[in-house]
Design goal:
It is a single chain. It contains six helices and 17 strands. By secondary structure, it is α+β, with helices and mostly antiparallel strands. It folds into two domains: 157 residues, Fructose-1,6-Bisphosphatase, subunit A, domain 1 (Fructose-1,6-Bisphosphatase, Chain A, domain 1, 2-Layer Sandwich); 115 residues, D-Maltodextrin-Binding Protein, domain 2 (3-Layer(aba) Sandwich). It is globular, with a radius of gyration of 18 Å. It starts with a helix and ends with a helix. The structure holds 2,5-anhydro-1,6-di-O-phosphono-D-glucitol and manganese (II) ion (2 copies). The site of 2,5-anhydro-1,6-di-O-phosphono-D-glucitol has 14 residues, from strand 5.
Length: 285
């Protein structure tokens, strides 16, 4: 299959899983007592969603590798593009019915690889509307997922060629252990912009994408490389931000320029209006 067709198939197959994932969250809101490769507690929903997506993605012709936030190793599954997934982002929001998402990075390279090798990236946002936001071929488009008969879903184009405009909102995660220099910067931003923070990368990024502004999760005490995993979270979201005409940064340079040596490598992460990202970089946090 042509790479473009593999990307199409990946988006369709992951979107088809949406109704199943949404209905499956209800009875899987407990922690399972195990930790993922990033030493974080796993919810039953994390484990289940990972298995569900893995089976769908590895069975697609033209997908050669599968890596997940929830699995220690890369799975080889044939020849072709490499897929890195955060099956449920913000899963700690599930018990309180706040926004959660799924993040998918599609790389043309052997994992782990840098964001320069991304050919497409998309996220699912499970909210009042369930949407798929896709960055590919230099454009970001947002679709609404509508269930139809059986396993079929229809993707309705809600927003075409989304561009990040304006500097309305800001939000930064991990506030309990920020370094003092970052606390000072956040103070300045709180005087100038509207705070929007909901505890899931996908939900908070999506607000920034549509309102205009900046979102991030900086390095903090005990997490010199921040919290987000670059392969499953940082790179795909940076690719979407930069495709939407805005900027991404690890505090020093574009997230997509960072060399990735380990599949669970973390990165400080900022994305949004270039002026706001530049102010963060100038502070050399
Ligand atoms: P995940 O559920 O995939 O581990 O991701 C959670 C991430 C991200 O979605 C969110 O922005 C951040 O963790 C929240 O971290 P804190 O709980 O430290 O604020
Ligand atoms: Mn996540
Ligand atoms: Mn996750």
């Amino acid at each position: 299959m042509e790479k473009e067709d593999v990307v199409d198939e990946l988006i369709q197959k992951v979107a088809e899983a949406v109704p199943h994932i949404s209905s499956g969250l209800m009875h899987r809101r407990e922690y399972v007592g195990e930790e993922n490769p990033s030493d974080e507690k796993m919810m039953e929903a994390d484990v289940w969603a990972n298995e569900f997506f893995k089976e769908k993605i590895t069975s697609i012709e033209g997908v050669g590798q599968f890596a997940s936030e929830e699995e220690h190793e890369v799975t080889d599954c044939g020849e072709g593009l490499s897929v890195a997934i955060d099956p449920l982002d913000g899963s700690s929001n599930i018990p309180t019915n706040n926004l959660v998402g799924t993040i998918v990075g599609i790389y043309d390279g052997v994992l782990p690889c840098s964001g320069e090798d991304l050919v497409a990236a998309f996220y699912i946002l499970y909210g009042p509307l369930t949407t798929v936001t896709v960055a590919r071929n230099g454009q970001v488009d947002e679709y609404v997922v509508e269930e139809s008969s059986g396993d079929e879903v229809n993707l309705y184009l809600a927003s075409e060629d989304v561009e990040i405009e304006g500097k309305k909102t800001y939000g930064f995660g991990g506030n309990k252990s920020w370094f003092e220099s970052f606390e000072e910067l956040e103070e300045e931003f709180s005087d100038e912009f509207k705070l929007r923070y909901g505890g899931s990368l996908v939900g908070d990024f999506n607000q920034m994408l549509h309102h205009g502004g900046v979102f991030g999760y900086p390095a903090k005490e005990g997490y010199d490389n921040g919290k987000y995993r670059i392969l499953f979270e940082g790179n795909p979201m940076a690719f979407i931000a930069e495709t939407a005409g805005s900027a991404s940064s690890n505090g020093d340079r574009s997230v997509l320029d960072v060399q990735v040596d380990d599949i669970h490598q973390r990165t400080p992460f900022f994305a949004g209006h270039p002026d706001m990202v530049e102010r963060i970089e100038e502070r050399a946090l």
